[in-house]
User: Fold these one by one.
Assistant:
Number 1:
Amino acid sequence: MIPELLDKSFFLREDVVNQARELLGCVLFTTVDGEFTSGIITETEAYAGINDRASHAYGGRRTARTETMFCAGGLAYVYLCYGMYHLFNVVTGPEGMPNAVLIRAISPLNGTETMMRRRKRNILKGLTDGPGKLTIALGISHLYNKVPLDGSMIGITRHYCPAAEAITTTPRIGIDYAGEDALLPYRFLLQL
DNA sequence: CAGTGGATCGTCT
DNA sequence: GACGATCCACTGG
């Protein structure tokens, strides 16, 4: 059966934590300069809008950068982290509700040669197991910010539904500044 | 292995 | 002017 592209009905939902969990096992793909690359999503984090101290949109902060998060779900939110890495998020929720899911890791599927070239690595191990690594491998840059996840440049397809036992839940990474919200169980890992 | 520090720049104060 | 939703090389055990 042909993989089914996730559509508006998924992205517009308001339960971002469940959406983060459900993205595990889906396939994220890009086509850049005719080169198709993809991987199975194995790690995600939910960022829950204006009430989440870890979110860029905490307190309803609406700036040129966070504007993307306030858009209706179904597009990419890409921003520069630590001055050198582009991080990729899936915007979810209806317009005005700035929820997003950070994709933190994928397992290489298609276009591994291309991904290794972009990463300047010649082994699969460690190729896409970090939020900054996978964007390099998939060719995702700032140009992907606000781009629809409709499969033309970038898209997400259902691949398989993981067993509950294959999923681990933990607090999020690198958000110590978020106070009590740093303890929320909003990070999901999939054991393939 | 664990721990450490450098790279690097857009964004917001 | 300070600070990241990070990665990697390098150190020492």
Number 2:
Amino acid sequence: MPELPEVECVRRSLEPVLIGRTLREVLRHRPDVVRGDANAHGLSRGQRIERLVRHGKQLALVGRGPGGTTGCVVAHLGMSGQLRWASAPANPAPKHTHVVWRFDQGELRFTDPRRFGGVWVFPSLEAAYTARWAELGPDALSVTPARLHRALSRTTRMLKPALLDQAVVAGLGNIYVDELLFGARLRPTLQANAVTPAQAGSLTRRMKTLLSRAIRAGGSTLRDYVDGTGSAGGYQLAHRVYGRAGQRCLRRGCGVDLASSTLAGRTTVYCPACQG
DNA sequence: CTGGTCTCCTGATCGC
DNA sequence: TGCGATCAGGAGACCA
């Protein structure tokens, strides 16, 4: 479910409740959801949560223990994953709760019905960077026009699949790519290496405003997304193409019916008149 | 290297 | 009320 704005909202909502808390125990109800270095524990008992770091759609919880030990857990929410804070422990855990981090008061739960997401454990944030985040492109909120242009110019793929590729730019998913391409008035099927530096500049700027607005609105809640404290988002009300196939284009003076097709296995909605 | 198709899962929704 | 088909915010494997 979650793309960059939703994961950032989870990060921001969890920060105030998690920072400084001391971990008591970790319950792995479904151990196969936890992956990573066999020698790594991720976060261990006695460590305090130091910070929460996001890159693209992934969120790292960074811990530090009294003896200077470090720990790191990276969550990737996939389609249906959630990280939720609860001020009181629950026994038994709610359905599809795969991992629980128990603190002095309250607990953090990773739940994921479809299990497309997961949790990766590392000995430190640095280890997570080299082992897991190194293959990701720059975060969509900090990518530069030059960097985006260079990445796009290196591939003959269509623009939408290229932007969905987390190695090109990290954070975009199906909703925000469609919204971005509509705003930038570019065809999803445009060849990525045909994007001009000026268009890459426009894409970069629009990407940041789009994602920032979505974050400010609390993300997009289509069916079950909520942030770390259970709040739903409101940005779905601002979608201009996603979920609107067959309805009229909202651009002033257009009014053409939005078209839908499948690209890279994903439903793609665009305006045949405005885009391209 | 590319796009298309399938797969991993569960659950909501729709038509019969 | 039940039942099957279809679809879903992600991503990676395989194939031609």
